[in-house]
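Handout, tutorial session.
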Amino acid sequence: MPSPPAPPSTGLRIQPFRAVRYDPVLAGDLSHVVCPPYDDMAPAHARALRRRPHHLARLLYAHDPNEAAGQLDRWLRRGVLRRDARPALYVYQQQRGARITQRGLIGELDLHQDAAEWILPHEDVRPHAVAQRAALMAGTHAQLEPLLMTYRSTKSAAAQIVHRATGRPPVAVARSGALTHTLWACTDPVEQSLITSGLSGCRALIADGHHRYAASLRLRDRMGPGPWDRTLALLVDSTTGPLRLNAIHRVIPALEPDKAAAAAAEVARVRPLPEGPRLPGPGELVLAGGGDAWSVTDPDPGALGAALAGRPSQWHGLAAAVADRLLLATAWSVPDLPGAVLHLHDAGEAEAVVRTPGNGTAVLLPAVSEDTVWDLATAGVMLPRKSTSFGPKPIAGLALRVFDPAA
């Protein structure tokens, strides 16, 4: 067997690990225990899933980190969850019918001190959410779902190995809705080294999981050397399979749409849309409610400058900044409090929520381009919170990172 190539000295560093996975003999059909992405579940749905005996929601949505830690420990002792015998990089694929919607690599991503040069967040975070994620990680000594990250590779070796791995028997298969989720384990050290060397010099953009990434950094800095130096991550090569990028829309339940349009007209150009709600074009927002709709364009420069005072100059061209700072905060005085604003990933769903009069106002946003996100992240400019929706996101539960007590 040929000697594996030397590991890269710069760029992303992803390492094989011994994943903790459900034993289907004891846990049952994996489709009944894996969990939708954390941010994609309504509280009522999470509560319903927590009633299932071995569902991962019992850990992800536990009321107390100690409660989750105890549950995780019991599942490990009973064999419901088992640690793989050999370190692996895991190939993860989502498929809808015959169409592959996502394919990437799951491993432990190194958070070495110069990692900030290679790992690019692009959205701001809420401190209380970071604290919650950190408490769950510290309490369970585990990372239960991977960060979703995208990178641009110039080498084909990793892609070839990933493709080759999908021709082998999978180690896990689960269904969620119309999607089939499949996991393969790549345990060959030579293949692992070829994959890791293919990431040399690459940067990765965090597509989803900013709060979990910030929580990992917080624990790394507080705890010192140890398992906190790495984080569970799914890396998707956008040169072979780009992620989908959509906007995230706002719904303000307590705001009447006609009053919203009148107040918006004081700081921007507002025009009625007789044909009703539609997706906005570049440089446009669409207000909707009670079956009516308005186009919002051309923000007043003085009002926008005052609303974005102290913010990066690049924010002036971002729809989310205009929506959140100029409209919600300035024109409408919507408080930054839980429940005051709902964030929905589907424009049709957002419009449907407010279609009945009295249910509030929706603000529909255009999607930002991936190149714009990369350019801003590379320049160190964070986008406003809830600006982007990369997908498809991975389900949680096929491969967990539970810290080895010996680590």
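The second record follows below. Compare its token runs with those of the first.
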Amino acid sequence: MDALDTWRNGSPAKATRILQHLLDPKQQVGTGGFVPPELIRLFHGHAAEVQAAGETGTGRQKLLEAARADYLAISKDSPAGRRAALSLQFNAYLRALGPTPNCKPGTVRAGELAQIAQALRALAKDPEFTELGRLKATVNLAQVENCRITAQLVRDDGRVERAVAVVSEAPDLTGSDELRALAESIAALHAAGKGDLAAAIRHIRAAIAHRPNLVEQAIWNGFLARWSLARCDLETGRTAQQEALSLLDAAEQAGRASSKLRRHYEQDFAAKLRKAKKHCGRAR
């Protein structure tokens, strides 16, 4: 409980250390404990992935590999087996994006993404999985499919919209609000990819309104800034930029993002603002 509380309060690195201590064989007394080792491994992997979201390059890849090892160590027949299988597919998606995650053509591992999408479709329809688990699989499927469309690996046939609609129309469950936030962010990226920036901004504002974790809030405010500047809405762009940087400062203090990531965003924002000022001045 201490580890999960620490994680939720914004310190995944500390939570990972607590969970690692619990995985020490000396801490395991029998096999009928209140919290089984499989569940601890699942949380340990998730905490590592949260850390990875705030890293770039080799640091990101090492954390993702550590999380993958946790998921693989969980038996398929254990109560956490299906949840670990789902986490393994999402982990594979993150690794398929490479050290500098994006979905630009030629930057992703196409064959792996196709296999991941197939596995997620099966999990989303698995009657033995929990309803929340199936929703999570559906959100992850929307994410993977949007990446494949952006990378020009498959045609846009409405598959992302269908997956997002399933999540948006699902009944309220514990944890479903976070999934709706993620679904809105995916819908925003998909709309932006099609050039519909008004829809993209509407969806990303809806995602931010669900108050996700610090790093996600920062990233999504970054999208809001980028798309607002592209529409020559400089005031909204500046405000969103400052909010993103403030969130990254808080995330860095909490151990959820690196100073390198913060510098990258600051430099990128400054360049986009200069470009927008020049372009929008000419447009007037």
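Points raised in discussion: Residues 12 and 242 are 24 Å apart (CA to CA).
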